[in-house]
Design goal:
This protein is mainly alpha-helical and 169 residues long. It folds into 2 domains: 37 residues; 130 residues, Orthogonal Bundle (Arc Repressor Mutant, subunit A). Helix content is 65%, strand content 9%. It is built from 8 helices and 2 strands; from the N terminus they run ααααααββαα. It has a two-stranded antiparallel sheet.
Length: 169
Amino acid sequence: MRPHADHTAARAASVRETPEKKENCAGDPALLGPLADNIGYALRRAQLAVFDEVIGGCAELDLRPAQFSVLAVIGHRPGLRQSEVAAALGIQRANFVALIDGLERRRLARRTPDPNDRRCHALHLTAEGEHVLAQAHARVTAVEARLDAKLGAGGRAQLLAMLWRLARV
């Protein structure tokens, strides 16, 4: 039997002894059975936990994680085409157009005709977009620092290496 299974069985026994703690068991590996060893499920739960923190940090800016990601990529590489930003972030074209429309309405980003191909649009941040991105970046950096503390020394580099390895599958 794997060490994790021993740990899971011990945790399950302790949970059964104290049923009044049910409301505090969200995501408890002892209650998840085979899901506790499922990489996809664990990744999704971790993503939701991280996104909750990012959403909370950026709520005052009225900025969602996808919007932050788009602004961050445009800020990093001004002039990229819409299709390039969408592909880099793995966002479907129709969803990306709606995202950019919203950022344009808020005057955070702007489209300009691509000088090499007028059928395409290059993306740039506005001055307000740069300001909002700087504020959001500071908040996301604080979230990242809390995550680093949870992961411990060397944990960040190790986790990122493993996640990017999975992403290339």
